[in-house]
Design a protein that fits this description.
Radius of gyration of chain A: 35 Å
CATH architecture of the largest domain in chain B: Up-down Bundle
Number of domains of chain B: 2
Structural class of chain B: mainly alpha
Largest interface: A-B, 81 and 79 residues
Number of strands of chain B: 3
Protein name (chain B): PX domain-containing protein
Keywords (chain B): Coiled coil
Structural class of chain A: mainly alpha
Largest sheet of chain B: 3 strands, antiparallel
CATH topology of the largest domain in chain A: Substrate Binding Domain Of Dnak, Chain:A, Domain 2
GO molecular function, one term (chain B): phosphatidylinositol-3-phosphate binding
CATH class of the largest domain in chain A: Mainly Alpha
Oligomer: heterodimer
Family (chain B): Belongs to the sorting nexin family.
CATH topology of the largest domain in chain B: Substrate Binding Domain Of Dnak, Chain:A, Domain 2
Largest sheet of chain A: 3 strands, antiparallel
Order of helices and strands of chain B: HHEEHEHHHHHHHHHH
Number of helices of chain B: 13
CATH superfamily of the largest domain in chain B: Arfaptin homology (AH) domain/BAR domain
Radius of gyration of chain B: 31 Å
CATH class of the largest domain in chain B: Mainly Alpha
Strand order of the largest sheet of chain B: 1-2-3
Shape of chain B: elongated
InterPro entries (chain B): AH/BAR_dom_sf (IPR027267), PX_dom (IPR001683), PX_dom_sf (IPR036871), PX_SNX4 (IPR034902), SNX4 (IPR034783), SNX4_BAR (IPR037430)
Distance between the termini of chain B: 83 Å
Number of domains of chain A: 3
Helix content of chain A: over 70%
Order of helices and strands of chain A: HHHEEEHHHHHHHHHHH
Strand content of chain A: 5-15%
Strand order of the largest sheet of chain A: 1-2-3
């Protein structure tokens, strides 16, 4: 069954990847005016992946049991950004407060200040030390919105992203026990700087295999499990990319709409200057329009912070997943390359056994062909032994890598589902809040528009005909009667009213 | 000439050709202030007609104008109903007739000929069903407004418009209303030559300009707002699409995503209804934009009459000063024309002078009469028009309050709809 699937899947696999890659890159570069065509593309491409991914989910669900609730014993809070200015550079540090019950820590509470570069260092260290684990992403170094990097808005967004990064690490069963992570959380400034310098000696053991990343696309025997993860992540990243672009488009339209509203409201105010009896209704309209514009403005701002940014983090997350998948591929590749090499040597050994060495270079030089043969065979035996050992070692590594990744992906899927859920619920709540604000505004506005209506009715009852506006003839008859019958008591009230 | 422009409030003006039983006269005498108190009027059922004459195809829309007498005491025309087809140009003729015949009345305007202040999805074709339906509604409002007017609703031509299919057009032209129309032409420049225009009308003219520019700006921005709102909603359909595709690669999230996709589409589609309703608001504002023009046209007609008075007065002053000079003889100013003449040709004989003075006195008398009649006309016009402008203002206050209230109610409705859709979407997300 699994083999069968493999055969079906692998041929179009690499093909798919190429197809996916192209539009993704060009799609990101393209201006957001291409929404229609982009989402159309997505619909075409996503269809073949349906069957595959559902079985992927089946695979993953098997690991759910061992991934149950871990008891949280490490809490990290990022806050209080602070700008530092030295003669050479200006930078921002964030306060990182850690509370823990873990015995590995000397104390139960720590407080340090770290800058973005320190986070970058930590992440790099983690990727080097745990090439087969999924290391959560950091926010991009530069603001996409081209904000001043010391502006409060930018720092708020960054603080949120860094908080997410550290929380994800703290909740990770393996990464949270990393020595560098612990140092990052606890070390005093000078200790930390020293550690950073000292730590560079390790350098990546992985650097060799990382060079092979591009080669991994040519790998034939990637297990369907990871091919499916790869496909899923590609697809998922693409969907998030589309959603991000849609949300940007909506924000843009909303911003334009707010601008129009901001022009619309004042016209009612202007109009109110040339009316005597309509001043209140017109001002009520003006105010309502202004309040709604303000409400939408706030909605747009919170969308940026609470929707767009988390969405971007998830897009970065998919890049991290792709990176770890590539590292896993590299390990498998090395393993497979070793197997190939071993098989070649074995073939050679068979070949040497039956070959006639009479015309070999050795024999030509005067050696005994049988000796040459023996020598070659010995050498091959030795190589085969070495390769077999290496193969077994690599096999272990591959199996470990697969397990690590599988577990991490399972964790990721669980988190993703919760994060996406929260993200979308929050977005819906924001819309509901906006409409509720507007609803209340217009309800208040009606009261403003109808204000002073009593005196108005009294005027009307003195012989003004009803307007045909918006009223069917029947209703008109009713209101006619209504106004004439109410006119009597009203005259009574106006006469008793001192102001009237 | 000016005499014709003055309203005929006297019943004689209306009843001279009354038949054996004129329900309109009866109703008027029975104390009915306007037609709507005993008659139901509707403009229903637009219909497309194609007429080919001399190989030229003419396509137009006709509207069914229906009336029904609701007061059982008034008997007319069998069962008291009438229905006939009218096309827009006939409405135009009626409106034109009314505004010329009743220059002192703020005559209700007709719906716009061509769609203005349009946004991207507004119909551009004049045969678009939605456009025609909106025009039908507006024509009905026009009819109801005229019928609700204490003076206009008594007009024979107006009644004929609803009752007489054949020969109505001819009867309109028989009134020779167009001969009075030319007086409007000089109105264009009259205001510049007025010596002492009434402050009230100057203020009214300013008010018209302000009203026009405010409403025009509101409409202009509203059209842009409609574009944006349309975009905001329609882009949500893309969410619908991508959620649907996304649901294909998810397990637990698949179903919630698919239902959410549905609500995104619902949200996207909801804008169509919203903008239809907002179009009504725009139409109502447009009517008042046109009303500003009706009001201005009353001001212009005032200016014409004021101009007539001033011209008569000028004439009188001139004649009087001439007469004075004649009487004073040589004592006329050293540089005056008559002084020069006297010097050159010798002075007139006393007989000649007497003759001229007599002639002038005759002219002065005529001019004085002219001043008197034009002043009377003007005063009558001012009284009548101020009365109608007052009526218009009250109608305007009432209408606009109603229009704004309706707008607020519409917004509330839309907000509730929005809340409902997003609450449903939230329910989907909660199941993720």
């Amino acid at each position: 069954m699994a083999e069968n699937k493999n055969e079906i899947l692998s041929p179009d696999n690499s093909d798919d990847q190429l197809k996916f890659r192209d539009p993704l890159i060009s799609g990101l570069d393209a201006s957001d005016g291409e929404m229609e065509s982009l989402s159309l593309d997505a619909s075409v491409r996503s269809e073949p992946s349906v069957s595959r991914s559902s079985s992927l989910m089946g695979n993953l669900s098997r690991y759910e049991d061992c991934m149950d609730e871990e008891t949280k014993d490490l809490f990290v809070v990022v806050d209080d950004p602070e700008k530092h200015t030295s003669t050479l550079e200006a930078y921002v540090t964030f306060r990182i407060t850690t509370k823990t019950t873990r015995s590995e820590f000397d104390d139960s509470q720590f407080q340090v200040r770290r800058r973005y570069n320190d986070f970058l260092w930590l992440r790099q260290k983690l990727e080097e030390s745990y090439p087969t684990h999924l290391v959560p992403p950091l926010p991009e170094k530069h603001s996409l919105r081209r904000l001043d990097r010391f502006s409060p808005e930018f720092l708020k967004v960054r603080q949120q992203a860094l908080q997410k990064f550290l929380t994800r690490l703290a909740n990770h069963p393996v990464l949270s026990f990393d020595k560098n992570f612990q140092v990052f959380l606890t070390a005093k400034a000078w200790e930390f700087q020293a550690h950073k310098k000292h730590g560079t000696g390790i350098l990546s053991r992985m650097s060799d295999s990382i060079h092979n990343i591009s080669a991994s696309y040519m790998m034939k025997n990637r297990s369907p499990e990871f091919s499916m993860i790869y496909d899923y992540i590609q697809n998922f990243a693409e969907k998030l990319g589309v959603i991000d672009r849609i949300s940007q488009r909506i924000v843009k339209e909303q911003t334009d709409y707010v601008l129009e509203l901001c022009e619309w409201g004042p016209i009612y105010t202007l109009w109110s200057n040339s009316e005597d009896e309509l001043t209140f209704p017109l001002l009520a309209m003006s105010r309502a329009v202004d309040i709604c514009a303000q409400a939408l403005k706030e909605t747009i701002e919170t969308t940026e912070d609470n929707f767009s940014q988390p969405l971007k983090e998830y897009i970065l997350y998919t890049d991290a997943i792709k990176a770890v998948l590539r590292r896993r591929d590299a390990i498998q590749m090395e393993y497979e390359a070793t197997i190939d090499e071993l098989n070649r040597k074995k073939d050679e050994r068979e070949h040497v056994k039956i070959s006639d060495q009479t015309y070999s270079i050795g024999a030509f030089l005067g050696k005994d062909p049988e000796d040459v043969k023996q020598q070659k065979q010995d050498k091959l035996e030795q190589q085969i032994d070495e390769l077999t050992k290496k193969m077994e070692e690599l096999n272990d590594r591959t199996v470990c890598a697969d397990t690590d990744l599988r577990v991490d992906m399972e964790r990721w899927h669980k988190n993703k589902q919760k994060d996406i859920k929260d993200l979308f619920i929050e977005a819906a709540d924001r819309q509901i809040l906006y409409y509720e604000k507007c609803l209340k505004t217009w309800e208040d506005a009606i009261r403003g528009i109808q204000a002073k209506d009593i005196s108005q009715d009294a005027l009307e009852s003195q012989g003004i005909e009803n307007s045909p506006n918006n009223l069917s003839s029947e209703e008109r008859g009713d209101t006619m009667e209504g106004s004439s019958t109410t006119s009597e008591p009203q005259e009574g009230t106006t006469s008793s009213d001192p102001s009237g | 000439m000016a005499d014709d422009a003055i309203p005929k409030y006297s019943p004689e003006g209306l009843s001279h050709d009354s038949a054996e039983e004129d329900p309109f006269e009866n109703a008027r005498q029975a104390g009915k202030k306007n037609l709507l108190q005993w008659m139901e009027i509707s403009v229903a059922e637009p219909e497309k007609r194609v007429v080919t004459s001399m190989k030229v195809q003419d396509t137009f829309i006709v509207y069914l104008v229906e009336t029904r007498i609701t007061d059982k005491n008034i008997k007319y025309n069998g069962d008291g109903t009438s229905s006939l087809w009218r096309r827009y140009s006939e409405f135009e003729l009626l409106q034109n007739y009314l505004s010329i015949t009743y220059p002192y009345i703020v005559v209700p305007p007709l719906p716009e000929k061509k769609a203005s202040y349009v946004w991207q999805n507004s119909p551009t074709d004049k045969f678009d069903t939605e456009f025609i339906e909106r025009r039908r509604a507006a024509l009905e409002i026009f009819m109801l407004r005229v019928a609700a007017h204490p003076v206009l609703s008594q007009d024979k031509i107006f009644i004929g418009f609803m009752q007489r299919e054949d020969g109505w057009k001819e009867s309109v032209y028989l009134t020779d209303f167009q001969s009075k129309a030319d007086s409007r032409l000089k109105a264009l420049s009259a205001s510049f030559r007025l010596r002492s225009p009434d402050r009230q009308y100057d203020e009214l003219k300013n008010y018209c300009n302000e009203l026009e520019s405010n409403i025009a700006n509101l409409l202009k921005i509203r059209a842009r707002m409609a574009d944006k709102l349309y975009g905001i909603h329609k882009i949500h359909a893309n969410y619908g699409r991508v959620y649907n595709e996304w649901s294909g690669i998810e397990k637990d999230m698949a179903e919630p995503l698919q239902s959410a996709s549905h609500y995104m589409n619902v949200f996207s589609q909801s804008v169509d209804g919203i903008l239809d309703e907002e179009e009504q608001y725009a139409d109502q504002l447009k009517e008042y934009l046109a009303f500003a023009d009706s009001l201005r046209s009353v001001c212009r007609k005032y200016e014409c009459l004021q101009y007539d008075v001033e011209r008569a007065e000028d004439n009188l002053t001139y004649k009087k000063s001439q007469k004075d000079m004649m009487e004073q003889g040589k004592t006329g100013g050293a540089f005056s024309l008559s002084g020069m003449k006297t010097k050159l040709f010798g002075s007139d004989t006393p007989e000649q002078r007497d003759q001229k003075i007599k002639q002038l006195e005759e002219q002065i008398k005529q001019t004085e009469e002219e001043v008197q009649t034009t002043s009377q006309d003007l005063q009558k016009f001012i009284d009548a028009s101020l009365r109608d402008i007052d009526r218009f203002k009250r109608q305007k206050v009432k209408d606009l309050k109603e229009i704004f209230t309706n707008y607020a109610v519409m917004q509330i409705k839309q907000c509730k709809k929005g809340i409902a859709i997003w609450t449903s979407a939230k329910d989907c997300y909660t199941k993720m």
